[in-house]
């Protein structure tokens, strides 16, 4: 029973993470647009700040967040639940968990 409640909460937390990721993606997209507009305005007045690379980086970050592309590093000692955690995150038993290595003679 307790594990079921914990799982439900975990899934709700994941949904919240996805929601926040989407919100941040929109913010980053607006940020890139604002900087781009400022660069265009600067071009016809005091000069550009050469922020093309930054605009591109922010746009890529926004797109990756929107598409759910991200890197996740999971570190821990052996048998600490890394595979179990990743399987729960993916929603499939993709990684073998509870693997016991038998020493070879
Ligand atoms: N009590 C408890 N056991 C867990 C938890 N997560 C994983 N385990 C158990 O710990 C053992 C090792 O898990 P595993 O995911 O293979 O660990 P890994 O070696 O870090 O990948 C398995 O028997 C799991 O069922 C947890 O949150 N609580
Ligand atoms: Mg493992």
Give the topology.
Layout: H1 2-43, H2 52-67, H3 82-90
Helix pairs in contact: 1-2
Tell me the β content: under 5%
Helix content: 55-70%
**Bound small-molecule species:** guanosine-5'-diphosphate, magnesium ion
Q: Span from first to last CA?
A: 43 Å
Question: What is the overall pLDDT average?
Answer: 89
**Overall body shape:** elongated
Please tally the helical runs, counting DSSP H or I stretches of 4 or more residues: 3
Number of domains: 1
From the alpha carbons, calculate the radius of gyration and give it in angstroms. Answer: 22 Å
Q: What is the assembly state of the chains in this entry?
A: single chain
Q: What is the H/E string?
A: HHH
Structural account:
It is a single chain. The protein has 105 residues and is an all-alpha fold. It has one domain (2-90). Helices cover 64% and strands 0% of the residues. It has helices at 2-43, 52-67, 82-90. Helix 1 (2-43) runs antiparallel to helix 2 (52-67). It is elongated. The model has no long low-confidence stretch (mean pLDDT 89). Residues 76, 78-84, 97-99 line the site of guanosine-5'-diphosphate.
Q: Quick gist of this model?
A:
The chain is mainly α and 105 residues long.
Offer a few descriptive terms.
105 residues; 3 helices; 0% strand; binds guanosine-5'-diphosphate
């Amino acid at each position: 029973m307790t594990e079921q409640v914990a799982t439900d909460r975990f899934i709700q937390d994941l949904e919240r993470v996805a929601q926040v990721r989407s919100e941040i993606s929109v913010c980053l997209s607006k940020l890139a647009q604002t900087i781009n507009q400022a660069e265009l305005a600067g071009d016809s007045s005091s000069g550009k700040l050469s922020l093309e690379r930054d605009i591109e980086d922010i746009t890529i970050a926004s797109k990756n967040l929107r598409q759910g592309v991200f890197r996740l590093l999971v570190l821990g000692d052996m048998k600490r639940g890394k595979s179990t955690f990743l399987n729960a995150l993916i929603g499939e038993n993709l990684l073998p968990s509870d693997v016991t290595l038998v020493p070879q003679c």
